[in-house]
Write a structure and sequence with these properties.
Chain lengths: 330, 263
């Protein structure tokens, strides 16, 4: 469905000089600094996948998505979206994709939502029965009827995202790009959008690429995760594998029957100590919890214990930092 | 074609929201009409035959200039510049329409809306209150309508090019100021071209700006008629086509170098 090969995008940015005098100097001679937003990016996405596309701010997520939409022209490399080269066939490509950019709305600001959708129907040449059927689905799943007659500027952020989601899918695209669609929306709307995304993916076989900073989105929705940093893929695979590879750190939490002095156990490090409770961080490849528990309970009486796995957020933080899983525990 | 109607409907929804803005604009146009008539009346009492037209024609020219101004300038440059500055241009490029055609549809829609809602009332008031005359005959009225459409196309493409400058500079306010100063003078909106000193007149006759006001208004008051009117229409059409070509080329270049602002 999507084929990306050695994709690179360079920007030129005016170098700002500091202060008022500096700004004045920029008027006469500007210095440019090159900025590589996307650096030799390659990946493939198959039809029907639901991919979480994550990375820290400025990693190149939005830039690469805009190239997939045909909005930006790559500096070098190859892109194919369902057989089309997006920047060469921008309009044909636009018919097969839908997109939500969380930061911006594509609806008309002063116009009732339903009028915007009607204009989309005309722009995308959506047949009337399909249009009606889709509206019905949006009413059911997104509650579109609750705010369809209000102009966009009066909508709450959650309503606006739902309206934008409807606009992105009105023409039954094969592919849906969601660039931070959950930004700033409350838990209830988030849950609703997640369910909606999954449903669209499952029932309409729409391939989805989802960009988000909320790891719960990724965990609940995505089957595959691509992590990008400094314009390059640093991880590509399913969630279980990332846990296996980076999430090898475990924490053993022990509550002792009485307060005991701080100590280290073999292959484990005392991470935290609080009252009668102590946290031991260890790598499960180096030692097992049972060995550790045996060692500790032989020395001090144990009242209660638990083994904690790192959550996905922690793992991703590890990947962003470039890798040492032990780091994440600290 | 359906698309153009959709955009007209959208323009209606869009503008109908701002009722206060509508009334203020209407009143300011009427004020401008009033003052331009006052100026010509004073000048004619001083030198009744210095201008080569009757007072009635001259007032018609001036008042019509204001009525045309109410809708022919749809401000395409501001839309493009804002979209570029805020980065919202990507939502335009997400749509399966050619950007140039999209802008044309959008602005044509706004022009048709402005014509119905703004120009017709001002025209009627101009006729009943300020002594705006009717065109000499039905033929002239027809040519006038055609000429206005061509004038709109010239105006639109100049605006499109001006807006495209925003891709390089991000802000077009200062350039736009200079442009408006030039257009309101060289287009003959206020003063017809034949009253210009020879040097300026030669410049004005080469520039495309006269296509926006001077040519349609000259056809309306009857100073251009017959073959003269047709060749003026040819001049407009030629410029409209040339500018459309330049606009498309410019846009092609812009898209290649496009940087989208913000996230």
């Amino acid at each position: 469905m999507i084929h990306v090969e050695h994709l690179t995008k360079d920007y030129r940015r005016v170098k700002r000089r500091e202060g008022l005098f500096g700004s004045l100097r920029t008027l006469f001679s500007a210095e440019y600094e090159p900025l590589r937003a996307v650096n030799d990016l390659s990946f493939d996405i198959a039809e029907g996948e639901l991919v979480g596309y994550i990375g820290p701010n400025g990693a190149g997520k939005s830039t690469s998505i805009k190239m997939l939409c045909g909005i930006l022209v790559p500096s070098s490399g190859r892109i194919e979206v369902n057989g089309l080269v997006p920047h060469k066939n921008r309009m044909a490509n636009a018919l097969q994709i839908g997109a939500v950019f969380g930061q911006k709305t594509q609806l008309w600001w002063d116009v009732p939502v339903i009028e915007s959708l009607r204009l989309f129907r005309d722009i995308y040449k959506v047949p009337e029965p399909v249009y009606r059927q889709n509206l019905e689905m949006f009413n059911d799943l997104l509650g579109l009827h609750e705010f369809r007659d209000a102009p966009v500027r009066q909508l709450s952020l959650g309503q606006r995202m739902r309206a934008d989601m409807a606009a992105a899918l009105i023409h039954n695209p094969h592919l849906l790009f969601l660039d931070e669609p959950m930004i700033g929306v409350d838990v209830v709307v988030k849950e609703r959008l997640r369910t909606f995304i999954q449903q669209v993916n499952r029932e309409r076989k729409v391939t989805v690429i989802l960009t988000t900073h909320d790891m719960v989105d990724i965990e609940k929705v995505c089957s595959r995760i691509m992590i990008i940093d400094h314009g390059q893929i640093v991880y590509d695979g399913d969630l279980d594998r990332i846990r296996e590879r980076y999430g090898t750190t475990r924490t053993l939490v022990i509550e002792f029957e009485e307060s005991v002095p701080d100590f280290d156990a073999p292959h484990a490090r005392l991470a935290k100590s609080e009252g009668r409770r102590k946290w031991f961080a260890f790598n499960r490849l180096e030692t097992s919890p049972s060995a550790l528990i045996a060692h500790i309970s032989a020395r001090y009486p144990v009242a209660d214990l638990a083994v904690e796995e790192p959550d996905i957020e922690e793992i991703v933080r590890t990947v962003y930092r470039g890798g040492d899983p032990q780091e994440a525990a600290r | 074609m359906k698309l153009f109607w959709s955009f007209t409907r959208q323009a209606f929804h869009n503008t109908a929201v701002y009722r206060v803005e509508f009334w203020i604009r209407l009143v300011s146009i009427l004020l401008a009409m009033y003052s331009i008539r006052a100026v010509w009346q004073t000048l004619y009492t001083q030198r009744p035959d210095a201008f080569g037209l009757t007072l009635g024609q001259m007032v018609t020219y001036g008042v019509l200039g204001m009525a045309l101004h109410a809708f022919i300038d749809t401000g395409s440059e501001w839309y493009i510049a804002t979209q570029v500055r805020t980065g919202a241009i990507d939502t335009d490029l997400l749509k399966p329409i050619d950007f140039h055609v999209h802008m044309l549809a959008r602005n044509l829609g706004e022009m048709l809306f402005g014509m119905g809602v703004m120009a017709l009332p001002t025209y009627a008031i101009g006729y009943f209150v300020f002594g705006l005359q009717l065109p000499p005959d039905a033929g002239a009225a027809g040519l006038f309508a055609l000429s206005v459409l061509l004038g709109f196309l010239v105006q639109f493409h100049l605006g499109f090019l001006l807006g495209s400058v925003a891709f390089a500079t991000l802000d077009i306010r200062s350039i736009a100021w200079a442009y408006f100063a030039v257009i309101s003078f060289f287009s003959g909106q206020m003063v017809p071209l034949w009253m210009f000193p020879d040097g300026l007149r030669a410049v004005a006759e080469v520039l495309p700006l006269q296509a926006v006001y001077y040519i349609p208004m000259s056809i309306y008051i009857g100073t251009y008629s017959g073959p003269e009117a047709w060749s003026a229409l040819g001049f407009q059409a030629l410029w409209a086509l040339t500018l459309a070509g330049v606009a498309r080329l410019a846009w092609h270049q812009v898209h290649r170098r496009l940087t989208v602002q913000g996230g």
